[in-house]
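Lab notebook page, bench 4
Experiment: in silico fold of construct C2
Operator: M.H.
Input chain length: 427 residues
Purpose: comparison with the prior construct
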Amino acid sequence: MAAPDLTSVFTRHESNVRSYCRGFPAVFERASGHHLWDVEGRRYTDLLCGAGALNYGHNPPEMVARVVEYLGGGGPVHSLDLHTAAKAEFLTRFAESVLAPRGLGDHVVQFPGPAGTLAVEAALKLARKVTGRSRVIAFQDGFHGVSLGSLAATSSPLLRSAAGTALRDVTILPRDDEQGGQASLDALERALRPGSDAEAPAAVLLETVQGEGGLNVASRSWLARVRELADDAGALVIVDDIQAGCGRTGTFFSFEHVPELRPDLVCLSKSLSGMGLPMAALLISREKDKWEPGEHNGTFRGHNLAFVAGTAALEYWADPLFTSRVAELTTAVRASLDDIVARLPEGVARVAGRGAMSGLRFTVPEPVENVRRALFQAGIIAETAAEGRVLKFLPPLTMPVAEWETVAHTIGDVVLKTVDTAVHRVA
């Protein structure tokens, strides 16, 4: 008897808004490390990794064991913002192993709810409260979430068109670019200049590496100048590190190489829980923590399973062997992608991104979707970004370099074959 077509269940019962599953039409049943298996037993290499929510791979054994032990011991799962032993352990480990060594020991942690967009919403709301201003500056190709406040700072026309209402109080300016970002800085300086038509902003919201926008990397000089201009205007700097953080670029925070940036607020989510459990946090410079008790709240602020798994994940960052392997992987990712570009006709593509948040930016979008489909047929799951111009790879930080290099070889072969076919079709 033929196996039932499980995909019809989703077509019949799930909303039309679903997206990733359309590009990867399989029903997955099992996951481990950098692999997924579908119900037919086929194995895939996962370079999507929950859009950055699985930096340590699927079901890391240490984290799974901690969560199972916690549940078996009857630990509370839901707790609003009540004090729990699980939250105390997470906060202590986070402060000691992440914040203090990186010069952020004066920051406190707010748990706004289970999703990254809620961290952004809280950051925008707090910045407006602290400054008494309403306008926020964000940048072209930025993605910050799809709830209305976050969406106002997101530039995607597709996402913005679904709002159904005006998206107010955010000015979107040009981002940093390959020409040094001077046009962006000039626009920012004009927007912040005293006496300009626009009101002074509450905050400048940015990503150091724009994930959904196409792996655009902001330069150190641009980020440092943004901080200077924000200071001159009395505006806060908010870094959205939801996708680029938790080690994705090679360091825990994506901005560690720019000490001048000194963000007032940092948004985290995705891999913060270590194994894909819903969790978000807003890091707040202590003098900016102007909330009144209960002034901003939410039912799912205390997801103790995420605290337990997240504490286990933080132990990776205390292990020099892990951090050295992350450095090796990020170097290998760049080398592999450079090699693929060198094998392509000149000008077809270039490497984009930073660390294990990298990909191939094509000069035209036509081959990219074909490459993505061909990779899926070859058992590799990778997404596109920047309206189909960028092929994006997010390997787990725990993926052995040798296994990445094997997969990268297949990626190269698929890219070359697909691009060659497209070139001959045009000819």
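Observations: The longest helix spans residues 401-426. Residues 27 and 413 are 26 Å apart (CA to CA).
Next step: discuss at group meeting.
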